Amino acid sequence: MFISRKNRQFIDYQDSYYYRQQYKKRRNKWLKLSLLVFLILLSCLAFVRFAQSSEMALPDNTTNNNTLIKGPQLLFDHPNPARQANFPIDIQTNVEINGLIAYVEIKQTFVNPHAIALEGTYQFPLPEDAAIKRLMIKVGDNEIVGEIMAKSTAKVLYQQAKSQGKKASLLVQQQPNLFINKIANIPPQASVIVTLTFMMPVSFSQGKFDLRLPLAMTKRYQAKLSQPLSENPQVAKTAELTEQRTAYSANKLRAQLHTSTIQAPSHLTSIANSQSSINITLNSGIAITAISSASHKIVMRALNADQNAYFITLNQSEVVTNKSFVLSWQLLASEQAKISSFTEQVSDEYYTLLTFFPPKTDLAQVIARDIIFIIDTSGSMQGSAMEQAKASLLLAILQLNDKDSFNIIAFNDTTELLFAGTKVAASHNIKKAQQFINHLTADGGTEMYRPLSNALMMKKSAAQIAQAIRQIVFITDGAVANEFELMQLLENARGDFRLYTVGIGAAPNGYFMKKAAQFGRGRYVFIQSQNDVQQKMSDFMTKISQPAITNIDLIIDSQVHQHLEVYPKSIPDLYFDEPLQIAIKSQFPITSLQLTGNTVTAPWYQELIIDSEQSSTGISSLWARRKIESLLDSLVSGADQAKVKFQVMTTSLKHQIISPYTSFIALEKQQKDGLLLAKNSVFQAHESLMVAMPKTALGWKLQFLLGMALLLLVTMSEAIILRGYQCIKLRYYP
Amino acid sequence: MKKLIKPSLLIIGSLLCLQASWLPAKAWLSQQLISYSWHQTLALQQKIKPWPWADTYPIAELSFKRLTRRLVVLNGGDPSTLAFSAGAIAPFNKVNSTQPFVVAGHRDSHFSFLNEVAMKDIISLADQYGQSQLYQVEAINIVDALTGQLPILTDDSSLILITCYPFDDPSSNSNERYVITAKLL
After folding, report:
1. How many Å apart are CA A255 and CA B35, to the nearest integer?
2. How far apart, in whole angstroms, are the C-alpha atoms of residue B13 and residue A707?
3. Which three-class secondary structure state does DSSP give residue A311?
4. Tens-digit pLDDT profile for residues A362-388
5. Which B residues in the span 151-180 are in contact with A, Cβ-Cβ below 8 Å?
6. Do residues A489 and A596 share a domain?
7. Which of A493, A516, A544 is the last residue of a domain?
8. ipTM value
9. Does B93 touch chain A (CB under 8 A)?
């Protein structure tokens, strides 16, 4: 019992040959075994990986079978699916661009090529952020007119139509913002003329403007149509007649539009080989260059000598193919921020739009900042979201410069601070921060109020200069229950600060992110995957480190203009590479105004003379959109709901801009004795929102199967070996 | 040597099985806690977390009349919520509003019964005040999820249930979703 090991060691048999052999053998055995286990594990892992990756690679092809929707289409309710899709034989587009908004009117002509009357569905892929203003569909004597109406009215009409057995239905498609409208009873060989009016933003990045119109018109249709038409003169004649009739009734519309094939429908070839006409009036308000189209050949004509107004059409020889129309132009680089202005007069009200264009980026100067990062480490961030958040934060920390001071707040249901106050971004502090970030894990609940108020109240580092801007960068998935409480906190917060939100994960609460950034006069960015982190985060950090003009203020003669409505109500900062729009409504035309603000180096002042003679379309609509947004935001700070609803509705109806309280309804009317009578069939158009679909499979079954297979293998192999052994035994030792 | 392969394989196999069955077991266990907290929520009219460190709370109850099934829906569509029950995805997580109500769940745990849901089935959705609304299944679609986005009509008060497709696929990756749309009655 009491014999110790030490005593044993005195027995010296280790040098013996026998021991060495034994030892060697034993070691080999263990080596082999551990190798085997390792190999098995490795193969298991590889198998799981392989099974998953093959799963992922498979379904790519199946998705592309959907009919591509690149441009307007009319889907006929034809029994043969191959003959359902129908493309316009003619498209005429009139576009008026004022600064950053485009007012588009597209007139498309479709023909029912079939010998029977059919029901059709009109589809149009609206560009992102486009707002429909009006819709007019003409089929023979029938006219469908789409307008924005109060929701209650729309509902009554909708129910009426439904109770009379007239179906008003819609289609859901895998396409963002697809506008859909049903058209009943399209006679054979009749034409359908659809006029759609909408507003869309012009995208602007790095001094370059882009406008993309979804006009794709494929040649497929023409080839199909021209054959039966030329073979069958009877059909051709009816088509011709219909064309003439529609041309007659659409006289007024046509007067506004440019030359077209409809005006001279006597030759069918002209219908079959028709081509789009695109007329664009481009008013940039500031000097531009390099107008070009990557998709089509264009012809342009300057409207004045200031390099800011052009008229653009398609080159006559240009045949439209199945491409969207793309137009781009370039800002004439300047060292000063440029401001363009447009005015629209609607009845006796004046709408003014100011668009600020930032100066050249390379002039950017870095400012001193007192920056606080808030990172969400709640349970909802678990997994890839947390990894992305950490990667983003690590990247952001590295982009700080020596003028900055910073701090990090991590929160779930408790709050954890890196430092008590903000500290200078010196290398030892950054090292501490990196350690702090690496140790963060996602768990627990979301209590956002405390870290946010903490950040708002936090003391500035003593080493930091007084002018340093307090920036708060909030990294979260926005899964919060008390959105309104947080907004109120931001709304009521005093002091000069800017709040930026970084939305993480596949499905961040986008509404919260955008609104929080808006209330905090900052910007937002969404990071959807790990691949996004590097690019998007460094762009974002660069952007917020260089505001071009801060604290912008408008000064308008208050003696003359007593009732001004300016949106956005609190003017955000102007950043490099991002223009800023301000919409104003006034009783009298605004002829001049002054602007003040701060650049990094000096105070900024500019006086603007506005030429209000020329009326630009779309300004009032933009203003109305901004007003509705602002009214809905006021609900957050406790505005009276009924009052807001009333105001939103009146604005929406007056300016024909969709809102939560109104809907876009298309009403069918029939022409009788020259009068248009409303028929009780109603078609409702909808606005859609993209929602991210989460991963909805646990995948436990695969792993379970694998485990079971292993167990089975062991027992089976045992049985096989046993049987084999028995066989051998039987054969050799009978 | 041979003697050691067998037990190690046995151990690995059973470990894999155990780890795999932990996921549905967790899903089942949490359901008990969640349904308890849901009853508490109904009784006290408060948001009650199913366990103190939870990041979510029950917001509604789905019941499928024909299938005699009930399921308490949690708030949020993030992976940690979906591990415990089906979750309502923001911003469509408000019951009794004019907006749609969108619920996602795992095809191999809480929403495994969705393939039994048929057209015209009646689904009732109860909010925390005990008021319930009836919905009727109007469409069942299989959509491509490569983009990860689903367009939803914002002004339509419908109920939308999302799960992965196909149902009998054992893996955890899927590029298709099974989407059930039900109209408010």
Report:
1. 67
2. 4
3. strand
4. 655 677 888 899 998 887 777 777 888
5. 151-156, 162-164, 169-177
6. no
7. A544
8. 0.76
9. no
